[in-house]
Amino acid sequence: MARRRGLRRFLVLLLALALVAGGIYSAVFFVQRSETLVSERCTAVVGGRTAELAPDQAVFASLITAVAVQRGLPPRAASIALSTAMQESKLRNIAHGDQAGPDSRGLFQQRPSQGWGTEEQVMDPYYAANAFYDALVKVPGYESLEITDAAQRVQRSAFPSAYARHEDMGRSFASGLSGQTPEAVQCTLRSSGSAGDAGAVSAALGRAYGPLGSVVEGQTLVVEASGSQAWSVAQWAVANAKDLKVTKVDVAGRSWDRAERNGWRESAGLEGQVRITVAPAGT
To answer: How many CB atoms lie within 10 A of CB 149?
Structure first.
């Protein structure tokens, strides 16, 4: 009799554990698939370090880095620029200054009164990034300087040490978005909710990188690129996926799928091509 009671207790315990495990699995599955519970974010994982940005910040990080790539500048230049923009504007294109710089504007809080250009110009992220790099490349030996020193020689900030707070973020996203570290950048996003336009992706890509060989095939933009440039373009597409309704990016046998939310995975992607697919009509 005692043996039967023990067996019963054991079976009840097993059943309870199974129910708990099933409940946990269901809850995790629900959280992963529920659009309303998805925490949208973009991360860059390089050398065991993880940096995180909101999707709108990642868009500007990708633009700043793409401009460096277009100009043939090293990833170090992008690291300095990203650290600077994060400190100055939180990587957002803000239309106001502060007490120290009432007329400061844009990603780098550049001041028209100090010769950075008109207010309209410094509010253009492409102009602002190029203006920053124009000044940076005039700094002797900027590549070997500490990020704080290099940024300060360009910005002349009242708080020069503050740039150092964003060094890890700057290095991680610059390394991924420049293509030096493949598969570094990934974004967790909700579904697009509306159709994308491969032509719009092509236009944005061309402005960021300059002329690239590309062709639109239905809902997919096919870009001719290889090596670090291919990975730069691919990770730019991931960083811009929210605004441009990108659903999938294929490059060098790897794929990022917006719906999977599992980062980069093996795919049949061709060498020498980046394929950027946007959401179809009726999404």
So the answer is: 16
Instruction: Give the pLDDT band (50/70/90) at residue 73.
Output: very high
Contact (Cβ atoms closer than 8 angstroms) between residue 25 and residue 205: no
Total tally of structural domains belonging to the chain: 2
Q: Which of 51, 71, 50 is nearest to 61 (CA)?
A: 51
Q: What pLDDT band is residue 156 in, cutting at 50, 70 and 90?
A: confident
- 135 shares a domain with 52: yes
Assign 221 to helix, strand or coil. strand
User: So what's the pLDDT on residue 10?
Assistant: 56
Residue scoring higher pLDDT (263 or 269)? 263
Mean pLDDT value across the chain: 88
Dihedral sign, Cα of residue 60, residue 66, residue 71, residue 75: positive
CA distances from 230 to 15, 18, 108, 266 (A): 52, 47, 28, 16
CA distance 74 to 45: 19
Which two tokens mark 70?
């277009």
Range of the structural domain that residue 110 is part of: 43-177
pTM for the model stands at 0.85
- Beta-carbon neighbour count of residue 131 at 10 Å? 20
